[in-house]
């Protein structure tokens, strides 16, 4: 069912600015998972949440935008046609971070970050370039409050630490669009807020387009600029979080009875009263 609230993210003044994926259809074998979905344009400088129940196609949509699953998608970023690019060129601009990094990597964190950064630069095996790379990797780790993990092996990190390193690695590659699949899923409350704060600041400062899959509707309500809701492989609503996330939408999409209230500080919050 299409929700009555279907608007596009705040339009940018630059023509063709932002990320847009048109006519995304994806099949796994004989099963259609996304049905001619058109998402965006997601404006530069905004953090956009992709919401929806389990199995609705959120990860598949992010992977299709990144060019990681075969699809009919036509994807543009700031006027460039990503669909026509080689995967490395596309990834340099539009980076997908999966929910979990592989656990079995034995590299120290610092080296893993330097290796990731190297994939987006022309190799310059000089000592100053190496120092720059170390400096940049340390800065990324510091941004996420984890410089102390620099010499720890990747396969000795906790799940949450691995997620923070993944985010540091993704930002250090300096893409123009970041596609983050449940980037908060392994993080404690402190780190969930800290990461959202960092993502909002970095997105604004570098005019990135950040699209992230979230299950926490309160984070989506208060910490993102725009939400897009997927249900059974179709977009059912898209627009400002407070306008889209209504009790009606939550009943239709998530099959819950829920209230959306405004706290004394003006922040909105969802409370679920039961199963619809
Ligand atoms: N590699 C695959 N092969 C076959 N089917 C797949 C594959 N990946 C996903 N699917 C199916 O596609 C549908 C959408 O999956 P997807 O992972 O995109 O959903 P999601 O909205 O991200 O779900 P969740 O919130 O549970 O992570 C699901 O029904 C899933 O079973």
Automatic annotation (TrEMBL):
<keyword id="KW-0547">Nucleotide-binding</keyword>
<dbReference type="InterPro" id="IPR017871">
    <property type="entry name" value="ABC_transporter-like_CS"/>
</dbReference>
<dbReference type="InterPro" id="IPR027417">
    <property type="entry name" value="P-loop_NTPase"/>
</dbReference>
<dbReference type="InterPro" id="IPR003439">
    <property type="entry name" value="ABC_transporter-like_ATP-bd"/>
</dbReference>
<dbReference type="GO" id="GO:0005524">
    <property type="term" value="F:ATP binding"/>
</dbReference>
<protein>
    <submittedName>
        <fullName>ABC transporter ATP-binding protein</fullName>
    </submittedName>
</protein>
<dbReference type="InterPro" id="IPR003593">
    <property type="entry name" value="AAA+_ATPase"/>
</dbReference>
<dbReference type="Pfam" id="PF00005">
    <property type="entry name" value="ABC_tran"/>
</dbReference>
<keyword id="KW-0067">ATP-binding</keyword>
<feature type="domain" description="ABC transporter">
    <location>
        <begin position="19"/>
        <end position="257"/>
    </location>
</feature>
């Amino acid at each position: 069912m299409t929700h009555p609230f279907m608007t596009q993210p705040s339009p940018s003044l630059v023509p063709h600015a932002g990320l847009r994926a048109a006519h995304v259809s994806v099949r796994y074998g004989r099963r259609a998972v996304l049905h001619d979905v058109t998402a965006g344009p997601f404006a530069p400088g905004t953090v956009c949440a992709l919401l929806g129940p389990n199995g609705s196609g959120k990860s598949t949509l992010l992977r299709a935008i990144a060019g990681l699953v075969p699809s009919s998608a036509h994807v543009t970023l700031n006027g460039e046609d990503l669909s026509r690019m080689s995967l490395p060129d596309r990834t340099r601009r539009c980076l997908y971070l999966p929910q979990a990094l592989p656990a079995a990597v034995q590299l120290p964190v610092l080296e893993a970050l330097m290796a990731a950064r190297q994939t987006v630069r022309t190799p310059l095996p000089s000592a100053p370039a190496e120092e720059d790379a170390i400096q940049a990797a340390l800065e990324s780790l510091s941004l996420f409050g984890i410089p102390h993990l620099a010499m720890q092996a990747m396969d000795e990190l906790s799940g949450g630490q691995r997620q923070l390193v993944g985010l540091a690695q993704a930002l250090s590659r300096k893409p123009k669009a970041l596609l983050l699949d449940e980037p908060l899923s392994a993080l404690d409350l402190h780190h969930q807020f800290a990461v959202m704060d960092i993502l909002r600041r970095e997105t604004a400062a570098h005019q990135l387009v950040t699209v992230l899959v979230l299950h926490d509707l309160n984070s989506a309500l208060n910490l993102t600029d725009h939400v897009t809701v997927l249900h059974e492989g179709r977009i059912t609503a898209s627009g400002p979080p407070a306008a889209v996330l209504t009790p009606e939408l939550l009943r239709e999409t998530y099959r819950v009875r829920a209230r959306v209230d405004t706290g004394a500080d003006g922040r909105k919050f969802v409370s679920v009263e039961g199963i619809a």
